[in-house]
Design a protein that fits this description.
- It comes from Bifidobacterium dentium ATCC 27679.
- Keywords: Membrane, Signal, Transmembrane, Transmembrane helix.
- InterPro entries: Fim_isopep_form_D2_dom, Ig-like_fold, SpaA_PFL_dom_1.
- This is LPXTG-motif cell wall anchor domain protein.
- The chain is α+β, with helices and mostly antiparallel strands.
- It has 3 domains: about 55-230, no CATH class; about 240-390, Immunoglobulin-like (Sandwich); about 400-560, Immunoglobulins (Immunoglobulin-like, Sandwich), CATH 2.60.40.
- Helices cover about 15% and strands about 35% of the residues.
- It has 7 helices and 36 strands.
- The strands form 6 sheets. Strands 13, 15, 19, 21, 23, 24, 25, 26, 28, 29, 31, 35 and 36 form a 13-stranded mixed sheet that branches.
- A hairpin with a 7-residue loop joins strand 28 and strand 29 (about 460-465).
- Helix 1 crosses helix 4.
- It is elongated.
Length: about 600
């Protein structure tokens, strides 16, 4: 015999053994997922073994349809009673499924399928662990023109413990699709399952399990029997979250626009989620909102409502996470609103379902507190028996800008940081004024009150939530004397709007005759704009850094000699020269008259 023939036969035998080994491993691995190759139980009277798949806990309104993509053959019995445990099994991919099984396998692994499996990708799938098999199931599509196998399970009644997909073939591997109707179209109702019917050898022996007897994964509730799986609805969709406020965003109150809010402002949050109509078929059902307010938000439990009903009025609703009725957000601490089945019956009473789901709405208020900086963020997830959703998130900007105070250095540059300069911030128009006092106008608005938030003289201030406060607040905002940020002034917690910034006190040794006034606009997206900078060239605005650099001078001669300031300086000099000339002329004429006399 040719050595190459012998080598090829040896190689083929090796591959065959490898496939058998992989098949056994796969059987165990898919057992872990509770979706594949689990051992069988006795069939009902009159039903041939291996021709059904039992769906445990089928969901009302869902249809479960099986599609065959592979076959099991060449069963090798192992140990166990009557040899009923499988040691090895061969797997053959249905020809119409080769391409889609290959594509799904590559999507699950992120790599090309090994060359030895290109014609039989299902044998490769048999090597997957439970997590990879789950990815494979999610990625597997049905080939065009492929019909369902057997008779789907549909129209289950409330509380049904199980149902059956019938008319299937024994020793086969199926993709089971879970669908619901939406606008007369089939849409996904739950995750796909990969399930084997009972495996029967050529002698009619039905096999119950594999020799390694691995435990099943908890996600499938420890299913260990071939030909059945537990139905599981998809995890809930991320809730839709919005926030509104009477002083927030003007005409955009009811949108999720990133408006800029202030310290002390009350934000009204609205979280909309969906509850499946079949919740009523469960013996016990719990639906939970988990809300995580970010740093800068304080939530009170007193005003939490579900579908317009205060949670305090429904004894079957449980709330957690509050201390003395409040939760001060830090980005990790959360509160929960837990609704039992009884609570859902109460809050959903009279509601109309759409596409097999009820809308459920959580509302509450949160106050922007003094810890808010840059943005305040809030996220919510919902949890039901199917799992936990992705978070719904909403974010609001908090207005802030900085001032950098400088004077001339010995080289004529503007690099000397100046401590002790004081500024005031005043709303410049009616809309801005009313964000702090509903009855205020631009004419009646007064300087805003702030609290120093870092202590000492470090120049960092946050808007005081209570603008009527008379103690612990200041309207005179001083630049820092700290060596780390000398001359800096940081202002935080402002609402969107337009403000007049006035320097009210010059640093020691500097002229009080040239104190600038300028305008800052805090925009809806949190950006700032500097304008009306004056004509002495003493203010420069950097919108990117949200910083205005303000210059102080000791005398007229230090005014910048550019732009309007230079024109003014030369105009002043010219005026002085004219005045001197006029005085000199008058004096000369007077002397001349005296001499003539």
């Amino acid at each position: 015999m040719d050595r190459r023939d012998a080598n090829n036969r040896t190689r083929e035998e090796g591959l065959m053994k490898m496939r058998k080994l992989f098949a056994a491993v796969a059987a165990a691995a898919t057992l872990i997922g509770g979706m594949v190759l689990s051992a069988s139980s006795a069939q009902a009277d009159g039903v041939a073994a291996g021709t059904t798949i039992t769906v445990n806990n089928p969901q009302v309104g869902h249809t479960y349809t099986a599609y065959k993509f592979a076959n099991f053959t060449s069963v090798t019995a192992g140990e166990g009673a009557n040899g009923s445990k499988i040691a090895h099994v061969e797997i053959t991919t249905e020809s119409a499924w080769v391409n889609v099984v290959t594509a799904a396998a590559e999507a699950a692994t992120g790599a090309s399928i090994p060359a030895e499996y290109t014609q039989n990708p299902a044998a490769y799938v048999a090597t997957f662990d439970a997590a990879t098999l789950r990815e494979f199931a999610d990625a597997l599509t049905i080939p065009t023109g492929t019909s369902a196998a057997g008779t789907p399970l549909s129209g289950t009644t409330e509380g049904a413990a199980s149902g059956t997909i019938s008319g299937l073939t024994a020793s086969s591997w199926y993709l089971v699709k879970d669908t619901v109707k939406s606008n007369n179209n089939d849409v996904q109702g739950g995750p796909e399952a990969i399930v084997a019917t009972q495996i029967i050898d050529g002698n009619g022996v039905t096999y119950g399990e594999f020799v390694n007897g691995l435990k099943a994964d908890a996600k499938q509730n420890a299913i260990t029997a071939m030909g059945e799986f537990n139905a599981k609805a998809t995890v809930p969709s991320a809730p839709v979250k919005t926030v509104t406020s009477l002083t927030d965003c003007a005409a955009n109150n009811n949108t999720n626009t990133k408006c800029t809010v202030r310290v002390g402002q009350t934000l009204s949050y609205n979280v909309t989620a969906k509850v499946p109509t079949d919740y009523a078929s469960y013996d016990a059902y719990t639906f939970t909102f988990t809300d995580t307010p970010g740093t800068g938000l304080t939530v009170s439990s007193a005003n939490i409502k579900v579908n317009g009903t205060k949670v305090s009025a429904v004894s079957s609703i449980t709330i957690t996470g509050f201390t003395n009725g409040d939760l001060v957000g830090n980005g990790s601490a959360a509160f929960t609103v837990i609704l039992s089945k009884t609570a859902l019956d109460t809050v959903l009473n009279g509601k109309t379902a759409t596409n097999n789901y009820y809308d459920i709405e959580l509302t509450y208020d949160a106050v922007v507190n003094e810890s808010a900086e840059n943005t305040v963020t809030n996220t919510t997830t919902v949890t039901d028996p199917s799992g936990t959703s992705e978070p719904g998130k909403v974010e609001k900007n908090v207005g802030q800008f900085s001032i950098k105070k400088v004077g001339k250095d010995d080289n004529g540059g503007w690099t000397t940081a100046l401590a002790g300069a004081e500024f005031s911030i005043i709303p410049a128009d009616d809309d801005t004024a009313r964000r702090y006092d509903a009855n205020a106008t631009a004419e009646t608005a007064t300087a805003l009150k702030f609290t120093e938030i870092t202590g000492g003289n470090k120049g960092s201030y946050t808007l005081n939530a209570d603008q009527s406060a008379t103690s612990g607040v200041t309207s005179a905002l001083a630049t820092s004397s700290d060596s780390n940020n000398k001359g800096q002034l940081k202002l935080n917690g402002l609402a969107q709007g337009t403000y007049t910034v006035k320097e009210t006190k010059a640093p020691a040794g500097y002229s009080s005759q040239f104190l600038p006034t300028f305008t800052v606009t805090v925009n809806a997206d949190g950006t700032v704009t500097f304008s009306d900078l004056g004509n002495l060239d003493l203010v420069a605005g950097d919108a990117t850094a949200k910083t205005a650099t303000v210059r102080n001078v000791k005398s007229l001669t230090q005014l910048p000699l550019t732009g309007g300031a230079g024109i003014i300086l030369f105009s002043v000099i010219a005026a002085l020269l004219v005045a001197v000339a006029a005085i000199a002329t008058v004096r000369i004429r007077a002397v001349k008259r005296e001499l003539q006399a």
